[in-house]
UniProtKB/TrEMBL annotation:
Highest taxon in the source lineage: Eukaryota
Enzyme class (EC, first level): hydrolase
EC number annotated for this UniProt entry: 3.4.19.9
Native species: Haematococcus lacustris (Green alga)
InterPro entries documented for this protein: Class_I_gatase-like, Pept_C26_g-glut_hydrolase, Peptidase_C26
Lineage: Eukaryota, Viridiplantae, Chlorophyta, core chlorophytes, Chlorophyceae
Protein name, entry field: folate gamma-glutamyl hydrolase
Length: 226
């Protein structure tokens, strides 16, 4: 089943944009058609293979390449990569499929040494913040492109205002909310050709009662729901 956590949708909408889902298993022609309808991209968190030949990676790389090309032509096109999205951007830009390291913080992360030792990453991104895993090891938690409107966070800015799962201990303090508001991509007001590509064509499903569910609500793809 394909789904998008409602917190991403709310977060993007809070910046004044509308949401158009792009499915990872769309054909390149379909992806290009969707790209022509939008002017901002969010690569969300989750789990997927980040190797060439896998649908998620290939689709993400096509979108990133199109966004960079658009910016190079003077068409402002922002990207936000969150968690898996940051890892995806790191691999795409570095062209190194083993650049991520294991940390005691959920899953693979990007070490500072990997940025310093990879000229492509070092030339493309500024490291904005480092975080410590449970063992005290530092990893890169925020990246910002030097010449492009691209931001990548290993943390989830959409969760602070819109997720309330008690077991995740998500901070909802004034400082936490102020921090996430600085990350929201500005200027991505979508110009749509058809209303039938909007997220509202996907039925929402409340998932907050599930003990191990990390999101309060999901939008599930109508063709995937049975």
């Amino acid at each position: 089943m394909s789904y998008i956590a409602a917190s991403y949708v709310k977060w993007v909408e809070s910046a004044g944009a509308r949401v158009v889902p792009i499915l990872y298993d769309m054909s390149p022609a379909q992806v290009r058609a969707r790209f022509a309808m939008i002017n901002g991209l969010l690569l969300p968190g989750g789990g997927a293979s980040l190797r060439p030949g896998h649908q998620f990676y290939d689709t993400a790389k096509l979108l990133v390449d199109l966004a960079v090309e658009a910016n190079d032509k003077g068409d402002y096109f922002p990207i936000q990569g969150t968690c898996l999205g940051m890892e995806t951007l790191s691999i795409i830009i570095s062209r190194n499929y083993t650049i991520l390291s294991n940390f005691d913080a959920e899953d693979a992360r990007l070490a500072m040494s990997a940025v310093v030792e990879n000229p492509r990453l070092l030339d493309f991104f500024d490291v904005i913040s480092l975080s410590l895993d449970k063992s005290g090891n530092a990893y890169v938690s925020t990246l910002e492109a030097i010449r492009y409107p691209i931001v990548a966070t290993q943390w989830h800015p959409e969760k602070n205002p819109f997720e309330w799962t008690p077991s995740l201990h998500i901070p909802h303090t004034d400082n936490a909310l102020a921090a996430e508001q600085q990350v929201v991509v500005c200027g991505a007001v979508l110009q749509l050709q058809e209303d039938d590509v909007l997220i509202y064509n996907w039925p929402p499903s409340f998932t907050g009662r599930h003990e191990y569910e990390g999101e309060e609500k999901d939008f599930e793809h109508p063709l995937a729901a049975v």
